[in-house]
Amino acid sequence: MFGSIRHKRSLVAAATLATAALTLSTLPAQAFSPHYEVGVSASTIKLGITIPLTGSAAPGYNKVPAAMSAYFNYVNDNGGVNGRKISLVVKDDAYLPTLAVAKTNDLVLKDKVFAVVGALGTANNKAVASSVNLGRRGIPSLFINTGYSGFADKAKYPTTYPLLPSYIVEAKIMGQYIKDNYAGKKLGLIYQDDDFGSDAQAGFKAAGVKFDVSVPYASGSQSAASGAAWVGKLKAAGAEVVVVFGVSSATGVALAASAALSYKAQWILGSVGGDATTLKALGVPAAILTGAQGASFLPSPGDATDEYIKQFQDINTKYNAGAVFDNNVLIAMNTAMLTVQALRAAGSNPTRAGLMAALESKGGSFASASFSPILYSSSSHVGYTGYWIGKYNSSGVMLPDGGKYTLYTTDSGAGAVNTVASKRPAMPAKGLPNN
Amino acid sequence: MNTSIKKKIALAATTALVTVGLVSVSSSAYAAPVCATANYVETCGGVTADGAKYAMMAPANFNGTVFIYSHGYRYSVEAPALGYSLATVQNNPVPGPLVGSDKSVMTYLLSQGYGIAGSTFKVQGWNANSAVATNEELIATFKTKYPATKKVIGWGDSLGAFITQAVAEKNPSLFSAVGLSCPALGTVEAELNGASDFLWGMKTFFDKDIKGHNYSAGDAGTAEAMLDISKILGIAGEVKASLTTGTWPHNSGAAGVALAAIPPRSALLLLGLIAGLPLKSAHFDGTTGPGSKLTAAYTSFALAASPALAILENGSQAAVLAVLATLDMERQSGGPFYDNSTTDYAARVAEDAQTYNAALSGNTAINGMLAFLNKANPAAPRWTATAAAKAEYAKQIQNTGVINAPTLTLTATSDPIVPAGNTQWLADKYAAQYAAAKAKAANNAISTGKYVGPQSMFLPFWNHAPVSYTKFDTAGSPITTEAGVTGTGHCNFTVKQYTAFADALALAATNGNATPTLEMRTAGRKSGGIVDTTYVAPLLPFYRK
C-alpha cells in the first residue's frame, strides 16, 4: 500500500527538486523559506480560544470572542503585528470540562494554533492542563479568564498565564471592605462549591470575616428553584449583607429570587457574576441591582472619561457591530490588546518559548486598562492584584465609591490589604501598541 | 505477483484459516508443524514445547517478513455466564488480530506477501512469564520452516502487547519492528491496581457483600467471583436508575446512609476517577445532552450525568475483568496481593475532583465521599495483602520500557480496560532513553568532530474519540445499543486501522526507525487515528500516588 504512494511521491519530489535546481541560481539567499513556529506564517499568527457560546454559562461570556476579534481586526487593519495579521479560532466549550479538553485538542492538533488566549473557567482550564498538557507540550495559554489562585503556580502550570486577580485577592479586599463598612451586620455568603468558592472562603478567612450563613451550590445546579432555596436560607438567618461569589447565572437567580421573595439585603457581587448587562438580560429587575455593590479590576465600562474605555468603545462601535459595551467586551478587548503587546515583544519571528519569555520579562510594562500592574516574572505567573469597590446606579452602571477609583491591592497569601494610588501606562495612541 | 493471484490468496486465506483447527497436531508433546497448502497459502499447526497450540501461515509469494501476533488476556477460568469457554480459546490459535469474527486483517497481510503466526499460549490469564518463551520458540519454528524469513515483526493486543514488549526487551535484535496495540505495559501491579481500587470502592459504596479479593481456593472461589460479577452488574442497573430516583443501591449499607444526600452517580464518578477510568465511553461523550443546546437540561446532562454514565459503561467492563484477573493473580500469587491500606485517595483525585466538581456535586459532597473512603473510617475497611502473596506477585515479568527496535503503538485514548496511561508510560521511558542517546551523541561529537544523532525509534498512534457522539431517542433517553465509537472500548479498532498500523510497522521495519513518514501520517489519519507525538495521556493512578 505504501509502496505505490511512495513511488508517486518520489516522482513529485524529483520534479520539485529539478524545478528548484533550475531556479536556485537566480534567487537571493533570503528567498529560502524561514522556519516558522506552529501557528505562525509569513502573513498570519493563528490564536485560539475555548469559551461557552452555548449552555448555562454562555450569557455574557459569549460576547468575548467577537470583541477580541474586533480588536484584532482593528490591529490588522493598522498593519498587524510586525506585518502579520492575527486570526482567532473560536471553539464553543459550553462550559463543560470534557468539551474544553476536546476543543483545545482540536485547536492544537487540527487548527495548529500558536497559542491559546483567554480560555475561560477554572474547571475547564484545569481539565485542559491535565488532559491536554499544554505545559508539557510548551503551548502558551495566555490571559486565562479565571481567578483561581492555583494557576499562578508556575511549576504546575508552566505555560499558563492568569490575568485576573485571584479570587483570594478579591475576597480579601471585599472582606476588608465589609469589616470597614458593615461591622456588626449579619453576613451571608452564596458561593460556588469548587475551587472558585474555596478561594473565596480562603480570602474571607484571611481577612477575618466570618459569615453567619453560608450557602454553597454545585456548579451547574443553579436554577430558579435553587435561587429561591438560597434566599430562603439567607432570609431565615436574617442576613443583612450578602456576598455572591458565583457566575452570572447564579447571581441572576439569587437576585431574581430576592426580588420575588421581597428579601432586602445589601448585596455585594463578586466580579465574575457582576456584569450588569448580563444580569439584566437574565431577568434581574433593575430595582434589586440598584444600590448593590461590587468589585472590579478594570474601570467601569460606563466611564467614558477613562482613556481606555473611550478607545475600546470606539473600536467596539466600528468593528463589533456596536455590541453593548459591558464588562465582557471590556475584558475581551483588554485581553486582545495585551496579546498584541506580547506578540510584538516576542519579536519578528515569534516562537512559543520566545512569547513566554517576553511575557515574563516585559509583561509588567504592558499598557492595560487595569489600575494594577501585571506581576509576571521569571518566577511568578501572578497577573493583576488589585480591585476597586463600587455601587450600581439605577442604570446598572457600577461607579466607584466616593466618585473616584480607590485601588485596593493584596496578595493570595497572608499579606495585608493596602490602598494604593492607581497608576498605569497611558493608552497607546489610537489604541495601537507600540512596544 | 499479479493482482489476481493476490486476490486469490486473500480469498483463499480465509478458508485456509478456518481449517487451521482441522490440521491434526499432537497436543501432548512438541512436534514438527503439520502443514497443508490450499490456494497459494500454506497453513501449519503445531504445539510448542510447553504445550501451546500455534498456527503459522505463509503465502506462496512470502516476502520474508512475518508478523508474530500475541493475543490479549483470556480468563483463566470457565465463565459460561459470560459466554466464555477455556477450551474454545485453547484450541484456536489466532495468527493475527480479529475485528469481531472478521479475519480481514490476516487475509490482508497474506495478500501482501507477509507470513503470520500466533499461539494460544500455554495457560490463560496473566501469562507473560510463560508466553515470552512460547513466542521465542514460535519465532524459531517459523524461521526453521521458512528459511527465507528476514524480518520478524512482533505485535500484540493488550496483554499480548506486554508480552511482545517483554520479548523485545529480552531479545534486542530479534524484531525488526514492534507493534503494541491497546497495550498493557509496565507491570501487572500497575495494571491491576486501579481495577482493584474500583472493586474496593464498589464494595465500600454500593454493596457491602461484594468479596472483591481473597477469593477461596478451587470452585468455591470461582463461584465467589461469578457472584461478584453479578452483583456489579446489578449495581450498574441500580445506579442508572438512581439518575431519576436519587436512591442508593439497596445493599449500600453505611455509605448509603451517610451519603444519602449525594447522588449515587457522583459516588460512582469518584470511583472512576480514583481508578483512572476514561470519562468517555462507547456511548457517552461527556459533552452532549438531549434536546436544544440552550436548555438547562442539555447542560445538566452533559455536565453531571454523562461523565457518570461513561464511568458506568466503562466501569462495568473493567470491573468484570478486574474480578477475574484478581482471582487469577491471587491463585498465581498464593493469596491476596492487592493492598490499599495506606492509599491516599483524596490526594490522588485532588486535581480531577476539581475538573469534574460539578458532576461530583461540589466540594462539600466530594469531601464527604472522600471522608467516607478514608482509611480511618471503620465503615470502609481497607484490603491488605499477605507478605507471601506480595512477594510472589512481584516475580511477574516487568517491562523495563527499553526500546531496541522501531516501536509503534496504537492506543485508544478512552480505553476502559487498559487506559492510555500505559502507552504514556512507555512514551515517557522512551523520551528519557532518547534524551540520553542524544547526550551521548553530543559527547561523541566532541571527540570525533561529527554529530550523529540517534534515530527516533518510537511512534505513538493515538486514536481519539470524536468530540460529540451521544445519541438520544425522541423521549430524550440516551441510546446505548449501537456499536461503540472509535477511540473508546478495548482494542476497538477497525480493520482499516489495523491494516494501516501493520503497513506502518512494515515500513518502520524497512527503514530501521520509527520516524513518522508522510505515508504513515496519511494512513493514520485516513484510518481514523492520528500520529501525534506531542499528545500526552494521563498516567495510570498507580504512578500518580
Report on this model:
- The complex is a heterodimer of chains A (435) and B (545).
- Chain A has 435 residues and is of the alpha/beta class.
- Chain A is 41% helix and 15% strand.
- Chain A contains 15 helices and 14 strands.
- In chain A, the strands form two sheets. In chain A, strands 6, 7, 8, 9, 10, 11, 12, 13 and 14 form a nine-stranded mixed beta sheet that branches. Chain A has a five-stranded parallel beta sheet with strand order 2-1-3-4-5, with helices on both faces.
- In chain A, strand 11 and strand 12 form a beta hairpin.
- The longest helix of chain A is centred in the first third of the chain and has 23 residues, at 2-24.
- Chain B has 545 residues and is α/β, with parallel strands linked by helices.
- Helix content of chain B is 45%, strand content 11%.
- In chain B, helix 5 (159-170) links the parallel strand 6 (151-157) and strand 7.
- In chain B, helix 10 (296-333) crosses helix 14.
- The N and C termini of chain B lie far apart (56 Å).
- At the A-B interface, helix 1, helix 4, helix 5 and helix 8 of A face helix 10, helix 12, helix 13, helix 16 and helix 17 of B.
Radius of gyration of chain B (CA) equals 24 Å
> In the CATH hierarchy, what is the class of the largest domain in chain A?
Alpha Beta
List SSEs of chain A in N-to-C order: HEHHEHEHHEEHEHEHEHEHHEHHHEEEE
Q: Identify low-pLDDT runs of chain B.
A: 9-29
Count of strand segments of chain A:
14
Radius of gyration of chain A (CA) equals 24 Å
Give the CATH H-level superfamily of the largest domain in chain A.
Response regulator
Largest sheet geometry of chain B = 10 strands, mixed
- Give the mean pLDDT of chain B: 91
Count of all domains of chain B: 2
Shape of chain B: globular
Give a count of the beta strands of chain B, DSSP E runs of length 2 or more: 10
In the CATH hierarchy, the third-tier topology of the largest domain in chain B is known as Rossmann fold
Give the number of helices of chain A. 15
The CATH homologous superfamily of the largest domain in chain B is named: Alpha/Beta hydrolase fold, catalytic domain
CATH class of the largest domain in chain B: Alpha Beta
